[in-house]
Specification:
Blueprint lengths: L11 E12 L2 E12 L3 E5 L6 H9 L6 E6 L2 E2 L10 E4 L11 H11 L4 H14 L15 H14 L4 E5 L7 H18 L2 E6 L2 H7 L2 E6 L2 E6 L1 H6 L4 H6 L4 E10 L3 E6 L2 E6 L15 E6 L5 E4 L10 E11 L4 E7 L2 E7 L11 E5 L6 E4 L1
Helix pairs in contact: 2-3, 2-4, 3-4
Bound molecules: adenosine-5'-triphosphate.
Adenosine-5'-triphosphate binds next to strand 2 and helix 1.
Protein backbone atom coordinates (compact mmCIF):
# COMPACT_ATOMS: atom_id res chain seq x y z
CA UNK A 1 0.00 0.00 0.00
CA UNK A 2 1.57 3.28 -1.13
CA UNK A 3 1.61 6.27 1.24
CA UNK A 4 -0.76 9.00 0.12
CA UNK A 5 1.23 12.08 -0.87
CA UNK A 6 -0.63 15.30 -0.28
CA UNK A 7 0.35 18.50 -1.98
CA UNK A 8 -1.57 20.73 0.41
CA UNK A 9 -1.91 19.85 4.06
CA UNK A 10 -4.55 22.40 4.94
CA UNK A 11 -7.25 21.19 2.53
CA UNK A 12 -10.36 19.60 3.96
CA UNK A 13 -11.23 16.04 3.01
CA UNK A 14 -14.60 16.13 4.74
CA UNK A 15 -16.97 18.95 5.48
CA UNK A 16 -20.26 18.70 7.32
CA UNK A 17 -22.37 21.82 7.02
CA UNK A 18 -25.30 22.53 9.34
CA UNK A 19 -26.26 18.89 9.94
CA UNK A 20 -29.49 18.37 11.81
CA UNK A 21 -30.95 14.95 12.58
CA UNK A 22 -33.97 13.94 14.59
CA UNK A 23 -35.35 10.46 15.39
CA UNK A 24 -39.00 11.00 16.34
CA UNK A 25 -38.84 13.81 18.89
CA UNK A 26 -35.23 13.03 19.81
CA UNK A 27 -32.92 15.68 18.33
CA UNK A 28 -29.69 13.74 17.84
CA UNK A 29 -27.67 16.27 15.81
CA UNK A 30 -28.47 19.89 16.49
CA UNK A 31 -26.52 21.85 13.89
CA UNK A 32 -23.13 20.21 13.37
CA UNK A 33 -20.39 21.96 11.35
CA UNK A 34 -17.20 19.99 10.99
CA UNK A 35 -14.10 20.11 8.81
CA UNK A 36 -11.67 17.21 8.62
CA UNK A 37 -8.25 18.05 7.19
CA UNK A 38 -6.37 15.91 4.69
CA UNK A 39 -4.35 13.19 6.36
CA UNK A 40 -5.42 13.90 9.93
CA UNK A 41 -6.74 11.51 12.53
CA UNK A 42 -9.77 13.24 13.97
CA UNK A 43 -11.65 11.75 16.91
CA UNK A 44 -15.29 12.23 17.81
CA UNK A 45 -15.43 11.99 21.60
CA UNK A 46 -18.38 12.26 23.93
CA UNK A 47 -20.70 10.41 26.29
CA UNK A 48 -23.01 7.65 25.12
CA UNK A 49 -25.85 8.96 22.98
CA UNK A 50 -24.27 12.35 22.16
CA UNK A 51 -24.42 11.68 18.40
CA UNK A 52 -20.93 10.41 17.51
CA UNK A 53 -22.03 7.36 15.52
CA UNK A 54 -24.81 9.36 13.88
CA UNK A 55 -22.21 11.87 12.66
CA UNK A 56 -20.02 9.04 11.34
CA UNK A 57 -23.01 7.42 9.64
CA UNK A 58 -23.82 10.70 7.90
CA UNK A 59 -20.29 10.80 6.52
CA UNK A 60 -20.53 7.14 5.48
CA UNK A 61 -23.93 7.69 3.88
CA UNK A 62 -25.77 5.12 6.04
CA UNK A 63 -28.00 7.91 7.29
CA UNK A 64 -29.47 11.03 5.70
CA UNK A 65 -29.53 14.29 7.64
CA UNK A 66 -32.88 16.08 7.91
CA UNK A 67 -30.97 19.25 7.02
CA UNK A 68 -27.38 19.97 6.09
CA UNK A 69 -24.75 18.72 3.68
CA UNK A 70 -21.79 16.36 3.58
CA UNK A 71 -18.85 17.09 1.29
CA UNK A 72 -16.01 14.66 0.65
CA UNK A 73 -12.94 15.85 -1.26
CA UNK A 74 -14.83 18.94 -2.30
CA UNK A 75 -17.80 17.03 -3.74
CA UNK A 76 -21.27 17.33 -2.29
CA UNK A 77 -22.07 13.66 -1.49
CA UNK A 78 -25.20 14.33 0.57
CA UNK A 79 -27.29 12.21 -1.83
CA UNK A 80 -24.54 9.76 -2.85
CA UNK A 81 -25.03 6.16 -1.59
CA UNK A 82 -22.38 4.64 0.74
CA UNK A 83 -20.83 2.28 -1.82
CA UNK A 84 -19.97 5.23 -4.07
CA UNK A 85 -18.23 7.22 -1.31
CA UNK A 86 -14.97 5.21 -1.37
CA UNK A 87 -14.66 4.63 2.35
CA UNK A 88 -13.11 2.01 4.58
CA UNK A 89 -15.08 1.27 7.74
CA UNK A 90 -14.38 -0.68 10.92
CA UNK A 91 -17.05 -1.20 13.56
CA UNK A 92 -17.09 -2.11 17.24
CA UNK A 93 -18.37 -5.62 16.60
CA UNK A 94 -16.28 -7.79 14.35
CA UNK A 95 -17.79 -7.37 10.94
CA UNK A 96 -15.77 -9.99 9.07
CA UNK A 97 -17.60 -12.50 6.86
CA UNK A 98 -17.58 -15.61 9.09
CA UNK A 99 -17.66 -18.14 6.23
CA UNK A 100 -14.65 -16.61 4.47
CA UNK A 101 -10.97 -16.96 5.29
CA UNK A 102 -8.87 -13.91 6.12
CA UNK A 103 -7.63 -13.85 2.50
CA UNK A 104 -11.17 -14.09 1.11
CA UNK A 105 -12.36 -11.35 3.48
CA UNK A 106 -9.68 -9.05 2.11
CA UNK A 107 -10.16 -10.01 -1.52
CA UNK A 108 -13.92 -9.32 -1.39
CA UNK A 109 -13.65 -5.54 -1.87
CA UNK A 110 -10.85 -5.90 -4.42
CA UNK A 111 -12.94 -8.28 -6.56
CA UNK A 112 -15.81 -5.77 -6.52
CA UNK A 113 -13.34 -3.20 -7.81
CA UNK A 114 -12.27 -5.65 -10.53
CA UNK A 115 -8.67 -5.86 -9.34
CA UNK A 116 -6.81 -8.74 -11.10
CA UNK A 117 -5.79 -11.85 -9.13
CA UNK A 118 -2.05 -11.23 -8.99
CA UNK A 119 -2.57 -7.58 -8.03
CA UNK A 120 -5.02 -8.74 -5.33
CA UNK A 121 -2.38 -11.05 -3.92
CA UNK A 122 0.18 -8.25 -3.69
CA UNK A 123 -2.25 -5.81 -2.08
CA UNK A 124 -3.54 -8.38 0.44
CA UNK A 125 -0.03 -9.39 1.40
CA UNK A 126 0.92 -5.73 2.04
CA UNK A 127 -2.30 -4.97 3.91
CA UNK A 128 -1.82 -7.97 6.23
CA UNK A 129 1.81 -7.09 6.78
CA UNK A 130 0.76 -3.59 7.88
CA UNK A 131 -1.35 -5.03 10.71
CA UNK A 132 1.17 -7.80 11.51
CA UNK A 133 -1.13 -10.60 10.35
CA UNK A 134 1.01 -12.13 7.60
CA UNK A 135 0.80 -15.92 7.59
CA UNK A 136 -2.80 -16.12 8.83
CA UNK A 137 -4.41 -15.82 5.36
CA UNK A 138 -6.13 -19.21 5.56
CA UNK A 139 -7.68 -18.84 9.00
CA UNK A 140 -11.40 -18.32 9.45
CA UNK A 141 -12.55 -15.46 11.75
CA UNK A 142 -13.61 -18.02 14.41
CA UNK A 143 -9.99 -19.20 14.54
CA UNK A 144 -8.74 -15.70 15.46
CA UNK A 145 -8.64 -13.82 18.77
CA UNK A 146 -10.67 -10.61 19.19
CA UNK A 147 -7.59 -8.46 18.64
CA UNK A 148 -6.61 -10.41 15.52
CA UNK A 149 -10.11 -10.07 14.10
CA UNK A 150 -9.99 -6.29 14.53
CA UNK A 151 -6.57 -6.22 12.86
CA UNK A 152 -8.07 -8.11 9.91
CA UNK A 153 -11.07 -5.76 9.88
CA UNK A 154 -8.70 -2.76 9.72
CA UNK A 155 -6.64 -4.47 7.05
CA UNK A 156 -9.79 -5.23 5.02
CA UNK A 157 -10.85 -1.57 5.26
CA UNK A 158 -7.42 -0.40 4.08
CA UNK A 159 -6.75 -2.91 1.31
CA UNK A 160 -9.03 -1.07 -1.11
CA UNK A 161 -7.04 2.13 -0.49
CA UNK A 162 -10.06 4.20 0.53
CA UNK A 163 -10.24 7.99 0.45
CA UNK A 164 -11.35 7.96 4.08
CA UNK A 165 -11.08 5.54 6.96
CA UNK A 166 -13.96 5.55 9.45
CA UNK A 167 -13.52 3.71 12.75
CA UNK A 168 -16.52 3.34 15.07
CA UNK A 169 -15.29 2.30 18.54
CA UNK A 170 -13.10 -0.44 17.01
CA UNK A 171 -11.29 -1.16 20.29
CA UNK A 172 -14.10 -1.21 22.81
CA UNK A 173 -14.63 -5.00 22.75
CA UNK A 174 -10.97 -5.69 23.54
CA UNK A 175 -9.29 -6.04 26.92
CA UNK A 176 -7.27 -3.10 28.29
CA UNK A 177 -3.84 -4.39 27.25
CA UNK A 178 -4.89 -5.17 23.68
CA UNK A 179 -6.72 -1.88 23.41
CA UNK A 180 -3.56 -0.06 24.35
CA UNK A 181 -1.48 -2.07 21.88
CA UNK A 182 -3.89 -1.56 18.97
CA UNK A 183 -4.27 2.12 19.78
CA UNK A 184 -0.56 2.62 19.19
CA UNK A 185 -0.69 0.54 16.03
CA UNK A 186 -3.63 2.35 14.48
CA UNK A 187 -1.85 5.64 15.10
CA UNK A 188 1.38 4.37 13.48
CA UNK A 189 -0.49 2.84 10.57
CA UNK A 190 -2.55 5.96 9.96
CA UNK A 191 0.55 8.16 9.82
CA UNK A 192 2.38 5.62 7.62
CA UNK A 193 -0.40 5.49 5.03
CA UNK A 194 -1.61 9.06 5.51
CA UNK A 195 -5.26 8.16 5.07
CA UNK A 196 -7.67 10.75 6.52
CA UNK A 197 -9.27 8.99 9.47
CA UNK A 198 -12.30 9.67 11.64
CA UNK A 199 -12.35 7.71 14.87
CA UNK A 200 -15.29 7.44 17.26
CA UNK A 201 -14.78 6.72 20.95
CA UNK A 202 -16.20 7.53 24.36
CA UNK A 203 -12.80 6.82 25.95
CA UNK A 204 -11.01 10.11 26.60
CA UNK A 205 -7.57 8.55 27.06
CA UNK A 206 -7.91 6.83 23.68
CA UNK A 207 -8.95 10.12 22.07
CA UNK A 208 -6.18 12.20 23.65
CA UNK A 209 -3.42 9.72 22.92
CA UNK A 210 -4.30 8.93 19.29
CA UNK A 211 -5.66 12.05 17.68
CA UNK A 212 -4.34 15.03 15.78
CA UNK A 213 -7.55 16.81 16.78
CA UNK A 214 -10.43 15.90 19.05
CA UNK A 215 -14.08 16.89 18.60
CA UNK A 216 -15.88 16.87 21.96
CA UNK A 217 -19.61 16.34 21.47
CA UNK A 218 -22.44 16.72 23.93
CA UNK A 219 -26.17 16.24 23.30
CA UNK A 220 -25.99 16.61 19.52
CA UNK A 221 -23.68 19.61 19.53
CA UNK A 222 -19.96 20.19 19.21
CA UNK A 223 -18.52 21.71 22.39
CA UNK A 224 -14.93 22.11 21.18
CA UNK A 225 -12.63 21.06 18.34
CA UNK A 226 -8.92 21.27 19.07
CA UNK A 227 -5.65 19.44 19.65
CA UNK A 228 -5.54 16.98 22.56
CA UNK A 229 -3.32 19.28 24.67
CA UNK A 230 -5.55 22.28 24.07
CA UNK A 231 -8.68 20.29 24.91
CA UNK A 232 -7.08 19.15 28.16
CA UNK A 233 -5.40 22.40 29.21
CA UNK A 234 -7.75 25.00 27.74
CA UNK A 235 -11.23 23.54 27.67
CA UNK A 236 -13.71 26.03 26.24
CA UNK A 237 -16.68 24.88 28.27
CA UNK A 238 -17.47 23.47 31.69
CA UNK A 239 -18.67 20.26 30.02
CA UNK A 240 -15.31 19.72 28.30
CA UNK A 241 -13.41 20.34 31.53
CA UNK A 242 -15.53 17.85 33.43
CA UNK A 243 -15.65 15.22 30.70
CA UNK A 244 -11.88 15.16 30.10
CA UNK A 245 -9.69 14.18 33.02
CA UNK A 246 -10.28 14.72 36.71
CA UNK A 247 -11.36 18.01 38.15
CA UNK A 248 -11.76 19.89 41.41
CA UNK A 249 -14.35 22.62 41.65
CA UNK A 250 -14.72 25.57 44.05
CA UNK A 251 -17.54 28.06 44.15
CA UNK A 252 -16.87 31.72 44.90
CA UNK A 253 -17.56 35.34 44.01
CA UNK A 254 -15.67 37.81 41.88
CA UNK A 255 -14.22 40.68 43.91
CA UNK A 256 -12.31 42.41 41.10
CA UNK A 257 -11.52 41.91 37.44
CA UNK A 258 -9.51 43.51 34.68
CA UNK A 259 -8.43 42.27 31.28
CA UNK A 260 -5.52 40.28 32.80
CA UNK A 261 -6.79 38.74 36.05
CA UNK A 262 -9.98 37.89 37.89
CA UNK A 263 -9.89 37.96 41.68
CA UNK A 264 -12.24 35.49 43.37
CA UNK A 265 -13.18 35.04 47.00
CA UNK A 266 -13.65 31.36 47.95
CA UNK A 267 -14.94 31.24 51.51
CA UNK A 268 -12.42 33.49 53.27
CA UNK A 269 -9.58 32.83 50.76
CA UNK A 270 -8.63 35.04 47.84
CA UNK A 271 -7.48 33.45 44.59
CA UNK A 272 -6.65 34.70 41.11
CA UNK A 273 -7.49 33.38 37.65
CA UNK A 274 -5.99 34.49 34.33
CA UNK A 275 -8.59 36.40 32.31
CA UNK A 276 -7.80 34.11 29.32
CA UNK A 277 -9.10 31.15 31.31
CA UNK A 278 -12.79 32.03 31.31
CA UNK A 279 -14.95 29.21 29.90
CA UNK A 280 -18.27 29.75 28.13
CA UNK A 281 -19.58 32.84 26.33
CA UNK A 282 -20.96 34.82 29.24
CA UNK A 283 -19.03 37.99 28.51
CA UNK A 284 -17.19 40.09 31.07
CA UNK A 285 -17.32 39.53 34.80
CA UNK A 286 -18.15 42.14 37.39
CA UNK A 287 -17.60 42.16 41.17
CA UNK A 288 -20.25 40.11 42.93
CA UNK A 289 -20.69 37.59 40.08
CA UNK A 290 -20.99 34.03 41.36
CA UNK A 291 -18.44 31.77 39.64
CA UNK A 292 -17.06 28.25 39.73
CA UNK A 293 -13.36 27.64 39.37
CA UNK A 294 -11.99 24.34 38.15
CA UNK A 295 -8.53 22.90 38.59
CA UNK A 296 -6.97 19.53 37.80
CA UNK A 297 -5.52 17.48 40.70
CA UNK A 298 -2.03 17.35 39.17
CA UNK A 299 -1.89 21.16 38.81
CA UNK A 300 -2.19 21.66 42.57
CA UNK A 301 0.91 22.17 44.66
CA UNK A 302 0.98 20.75 48.17
CA UNK A 303 3.50 21.75 50.83
CA UNK A 304 3.84 21.09 54.56
CA UNK A 305 2.27 23.64 56.88
CA UNK A 306 4.73 22.80 59.67
CA UNK A 307 2.61 24.43 62.34
CA UNK A 308 2.57 27.86 60.64
CA UNK A 309 -0.82 29.53 60.68
CA UNK A 310 -0.62 31.73 57.62
CA UNK A 311 0.02 30.20 54.20
CA UNK A 312 2.46 31.77 51.72
CA UNK A 313 0.87 34.04 49.07
CA UNK A 314 -1.56 32.12 46.82
CA UNK A 315 -1.52 29.06 49.08
CA UNK A 316 -4.47 27.91 51.19
CA UNK A 317 -4.63 25.99 54.44
CA UNK A 318 -6.06 22.46 54.13
CA UNK A 319 -6.19 19.21 56.10
CA UNK A 320 -5.37 15.75 54.70
CA UNK A 321 -8.29 13.31 54.81
CA UNK A 322 -6.92 10.42 52.74
CA UNK A 323 -3.64 9.25 51.17
CA UNK A 324 -3.52 6.72 48.33
CA UNK A 325 -0.19 5.52 46.93
CA UNK A 326 -0.49 4.92 43.17
CA UNK A 327 2.98 3.58 42.38
CA UNK A 328 4.45 6.61 40.62
CA UNK A 329 2.45 9.26 42.47
CA UNK A 330 0.25 9.90 45.48
CA UNK A 331 -3.41 10.82 45.40
CA UNK A 332 -4.09 12.96 48.46
CA UNK A 333 -7.53 14.12 49.48
CA UNK A 334 -7.66 17.31 51.51
CA UNK A 335 -10.39 19.43 53.02
CA UNK A 336 -10.05 23.05 51.89
CA UNK A 337 -12.62 25.64 52.95
CA UNK A 338 -14.97 22.76 53.81
CA UNK A 339 -14.60 21.20 50.37
CA UNK A 340 -13.01 17.85 49.55
CA UNK A 341 -10.22 18.36 47.00
CA UNK A 342 -8.02 15.81 45.27
CA UNK A 343 -4.30 16.46 44.80
CA UNK A 344 -2.05 14.30 42.63
CA UNK A 345 1.63 14.68 43.43
CA UNK A 346 4.92 12.86 43.10
CA UNK A 347 6.47 14.98 45.88
CA UNK A 348 5.28 13.19 48.98
CA UNK A 349 6.50 14.19 52.43
CA UNK A 350 6.74 11.08 54.60
CA UNK A 351 5.62 13.05 57.66
CA UNK A 352 2.15 13.54 56.12
CA UNK A 353 -0.68 11.51 57.56
CA UNK A 354 -4.42 11.77 57.83
CA UNK A 355 -5.14 14.95 59.79
CA UNK A 356 -1.88 16.72 58.77
CA UNK A 357 -2.23 20.40 57.94
CA UNK A 358 -0.83 21.36 54.55
CA UNK A 359 -0.88 24.35 52.23
CA UNK A 360 -2.38 23.96 48.77
CA UNK A 361 -1.46 26.35 45.98
CA UNK A 362 -2.08 26.83 42.30
CA UNK A 363 -1.07 29.17 39.53
CA UNK A 364 -3.67 31.60 38.09
CA UNK A 365 -2.80 30.22 34.65
CA UNK A 366 -3.82 26.66 35.64
CA UNK A 367 -7.31 27.49 36.89
CA UNK A 368 -10.37 27.68 34.65
CA UNK A 369 -13.35 29.81 35.57
CA UNK A 370 -17.01 29.75 34.57
CA UNK A 371 -19.86 32.10 35.49
CA UNK A 372 -22.60 30.35 37.52
N1 LIG B 1 -31.90 4.45 13.98
C1 LIG B 1 -32.23 5.11 15.10
N2 LIG B 1 -33.50 5.25 15.47
C2 LIG B 1 -33.85 5.94 16.60
N3 LIG B 1 -32.94 6.50 17.44
C3 LIG B 1 -31.66 6.37 17.13
C4 LIG B 1 -31.22 5.68 15.95
N4 LIG B 1 -29.87 5.72 15.90
C5 LIG B 1 -29.48 6.42 17.00
N5 LIG B 1 -30.55 6.81 17.72
C6 LIG B 1 -30.50 7.61 18.97
O1 LIG B 1 -29.74 8.76 18.70
C7 LIG B 1 -28.95 9.13 19.81
C8 LIG B 1 -27.50 9.25 19.39
O2 LIG B 1 -27.03 7.98 19.00
P1 LIG B 1 -25.53 7.74 18.52
O3 LIG B 1 -25.41 6.28 18.22
O4 LIG B 1 -25.16 8.70 17.48
O5 LIG B 1 -24.75 8.09 19.86
P2 LIG B 1 -23.24 7.82 20.24
O6 LIG B 1 -22.71 9.12 20.72
O7 LIG B 1 -22.52 7.17 19.12
O8 LIG B 1 -23.42 6.84 21.48
P3 LIG B 1 -22.64 5.45 21.85
O9 LIG B 1 -21.30 5.86 22.40
O10 LIG B 1 -23.54 4.88 22.92
O11 LIG B 1 -22.58 4.64 20.62
C9 LIG B 1 -29.21 8.08 20.89
O12 LIG B 1 -30.16 8.60 21.76
C10 LIG B 1 -29.77 6.93 20.10
O13 LIG B 1 -30.64 6.15 20.90
Amino acid sequence: MEPIHRSETTKNDVEIKGAFKQFGTNVVLNGIDLEVKQGELLTLLGPSGCGKSTTLNLIAGFLDADRGEVHIKGNNVTKVPPYKRDLGMVFQTYSLFPHMTVYENLSFGLKLRKVGKSEQKKKISKALELVKMSGLENRYPRELSGGQRQRVAISRALVVEPELLLLDEPLSNLDAKLRHELRTEIKRLQKEIGVTTIFVTHDQEEALSMSDRVVVMNAGKIEQISTPTDIYNHPKTEFVFQFIGKSNCFEGNVTASDNRKITVLIGSDITHVDADNIMGDDGSLIPGDAVKIYIRPEKLEIISANGTDSPPPDFHLARITQINYLGTSWEINVLLQGKSIQVLTSAFDSSWHIGSEVFIGWSPSEVMLVKK
